[in-house]
Amino acid sequence: MATETTKQRAARLYEEGNAHRKQQRWADALNAYEQAVALDPDSPAAAARQMLVDIMEFYCKDYYNP
C-alpha cells in the first residue's frame, strides 16, 4: 500500500480543518490546521489557522464597557 506524500497529507488535513470549522468545532479545526502546517509550512492551512485565531481572539471593548 502506497503512503501519502507530505503535501498530500497536509492538503487532506487542511480540508479536514475546513470541515470542522464549518461545523463550528473550533479546537478540532485548529488541531487539523496546525498538523497541516507542521507537515507543509506553505499550506493554505497557515492562513486559515491565523484567521481562525484572529476571530477567536477578537475582543470588542464596547460590548464589555457600556
Task: Characterize the structure shown.
The chain is mostly helical and 66 residues long. Helix content is 73%, strand content 0%. The protein contains four helices and no strands. It has helices at residues 6-22, 26-39, 45-57, 61-64. Helix 1 runs antiparallel to helix 2 and helix 2 packs antiparallel against helix 3 (45-57). It is elongated and about 55 Å long. The mean pLDDT is 89.
Number of beta strands? 0
Name the helicity range. Answer: over 70%
The computed structural class is: mainly alpha
Total number of helices: 4
N/C terminus separation: 61 Å
What is the H-and-E element order? HHHH
Indicate the overall shape.
elongated
Specify Rg, calculated over alpha carbons.
15 Å
Average pLDDT reading: 89
The major pleated sheet works out as: none
Strand content: under 5%
Uncertain parts: none
Secondary structure blueprint with pairings:
Elements: H1 6-22, H2 26-39, H3 45-57, H4 61-64
Helix pairs in contact: 1-2, 2-3
Brief characterization of the structure:
With 66 residues, the protein is mainly alpha-helical.
List keywords for this structure.
about 70 residues; mainly alpha; 4 helices; about 75% helix; about 0% strand; elongated
